[in-house]
Amino acid sequence: MIWEGFTMALTSLKDNKVRSLLTMLGIIIGVAAVITLVSIGMGVKERVESNLSSLGSNMIMVSPGNVSASGVRGAAGSNQTLTLKDAQAIEKSIDGIRAVAPIVNGSANMVVGNQNWISSLAGTTPEYAIVQDRAVAEGTFITDRHLVGRERVAVLGQTVVENLFGESTAIGRTVRINDAPFRVIGILEEKGQSGMGQDQDDTVIIPITTAQERMLGITHINRISIQGENTNVLTQIQADVTELLRQRHEITPDKEDDFNVRNMTEMINAMNDTTTTITMLLGITAAISLLVGGIGIMNIMLVSVTERTREIGIRKSLGAKYNDIRNQFLIEASVICLVGGTIGIIFGVIASEVISALAGWNTYIAPWSILLSFGFSLAIGVFFGFYPARKAAKLDPIEALRYE
Question: What is the pTM of this model?
Fold first, then answer.
């Protein structure tokens, strides 16, 4: 009976092609919309994760100034509250830390011969390579000896090398950075763009002591990057760093911090929760069109019951039972959703790829979104097809045979 029901359902679709297509249109659009919007949401989630992970893993960031609901605020000059000694104290006093990298930022106007280039400047320590996951492709990274001697040495990103040296060798050459001569000791491995579109290879790294005393003339630092041994210790490190810096800066209990400590893992989890919620909302919004399609199926099945009243009467008079008639119409409604869902999956996958290619958005087609939308469409077919099927099964055979 089930196979016969499928055969009759396919025959009905074939005999009423236009009507069947219009009936399936709601399911097709709904399934395609769910797959497309969920793929966009998943793409956004992956992009956010890439943005944050590019900053480094197991990270805690310490920056000057206190971030509150009204923005960055604190005591006068709070943007200069962190020092190199603060970073050294953190590395020495707090357990669970793998590496600490104090950083000062600036702009570098670099000249080699008749070539010049403007890039971002980072004054830091050897631990920067560990914290930011930067490896050297050629030469060496800065060392403690360079820090102690305040030496004018530089490690260049690939973008800087290409624009200043072209195909020639950069190691051992001299580059003028803000009119001061620096010797190139290393070239970083290519890392590409960050998730936010920033070129991570357009950078020059020098010893932090050189940057502070011989270039910028400052004693403060812009931030401290801390890498924990694993994610389990980050919360404790965050609390310990806060307590240590409050003691070092002599901040009384009634005063606010003049620094800000951020746990990057918490930020990643918070952003993941947000993007997951957005993805769910997109999927739910698209699923509404599936409900509309289900209403269309109910409508057309009621019309089909009316048109086939005499057929139902004949089948019942020949011995067809209640369940036989009901299952026949349920199978027809399910077949409409199966065919519509299959077409919708194809259109959804194509739409996701087209959007990714034309708009440049990241899209990720999750297998669960295909299974969920397909299963939901099938459930809608059964749900909205049940009432017409029940109505058909309850028809009195004598009244049905009299129907004109």
Answer: 0.61
Nearest Cα residue to 260 out of 106, 74, 58: 74
Q: Per mean pLDDT, which range of 14-18, 130-134, 193-197, 387-391 is the poorest?
A: 193-197
DSSP state of 213: I
Answer yes or no: is 69 within a domain. no
Q: Which residue bears the tokens 């949401």?
A: 41
Helix (H) or strand (E) segment spanning residue 71: strand 71-73
Q: Which residue has the tokens 């749900």?
A: 383
> Total domain count for the chain?
2
Direct distance between the N- and C-terminal alpha carbons of the chain, in angstroms, rounded to an integer: 28
Structure-block tokens of residue 349:
């996958």
Specify burial of residue 344 (Cβ count, 10 A radius: 0-12, 13-18, 19+): buried
Instruction: Say whether pLDDT at 298 is over 80.
Output: yes
Give the residue numbers spanning the domain of 119. Answer: 82-248
* Structure confidence at residue 74 as a pLDDT band (50, 70, 90): very low
| Residues 157 and 204 both lie in one domain | yes
Q: Could you read off the pLDDT of 204-252 as tens digits, one per residue?
A: 999 999 999 988 888 899 999 999 888 788 889 999 999 999 999 998 8
What does the block give as tokens for 327? 């299952």
Q: If you ran DSSP here, which 8-state letter would residue 108 be given?
A: E
